[in-house]
UniProtKB/TrEMBL annotation:
Gene: bioH
Organism annotation: Pseudoalteromonas fenneropenaei
Sequence similarity: Belongs to the AB hydrolase superfamily. Carboxylesterase BioH family.
Domain AB hydrolase-1 intervals: 5-233
Binding site residues for substrate: 11, 74-75, 135-139, 227
Protein name (record): Pimeloyl-[acyl-carrier protein] methyl ester esterase
The EC number(s) this enzyme carries: 3.1.1.85
Highest rank taxon of the organism: Bacteria
Amino acid sequence: MQSNLVLLHGWGMNKAVWQLVQQDLQSAGYNQVLALDLPGFGNAPWLQAEYDLTTAVTELAAHIPEQSTLVAWSMAGLFALHLAQAYPNKVRKIILVGSSPYFLESPQWPGIKALVLAQFQAALLQDTGKTIERFLAIQAMGSEHAKQDIKRLREWLATSPTPNTVALAGGLTLLADCDLRALFCALPIPIYGIFGRLDSLVPERAVAAMQQLNPAFRAEILPKASHAPFISHREEFVSILKSML
């Protein structure tokens, strides 16, 4: 059974969002289940003037054991893919959760509308707290348990310091600019995915596009889940995750 399992959170969040899944996996006998804060989020510092993926991945890699399976939610999928390329001994498998190698919508690719990301970037400068609240609402949109999901996310966020403002702004830039589709096809390791059919950030059509791009990519879609299936449909999510491990 895989002993090194690393859980990575998404934009604006921290490692606390994984606490219930982490407990489920530890009780199932996985020896080492780590939930990590991305650089600049939670308790992980960010001291640089700008936020770039290469530097952030370098900092993150120092905390990841060799031969780990990375479970990467949302923005963290970009970190996982880049990390697997830069530090191949660290990563044996990637499981993307509500994530994509390219988040921006284009005529050939389903994703987040450029206007939506631009609005978030502008709002972040005005009111960080309200911007994160709005993002929480979008993540739960469509879920049967939307209010409960948002409440849980809000409570877990409060357990750690407010994210670094440079990391928040830089993370949105990564979502807008990072295109790792070529890398997604080229990595010589298994890549899996777990998605929610009601996800508005990584729509169901994006999953089909990823499967066309990389025929070896295996994905499961939870029919009633949104962007955070590990919160809204935890038992089903954990069952699928175990099958992929």
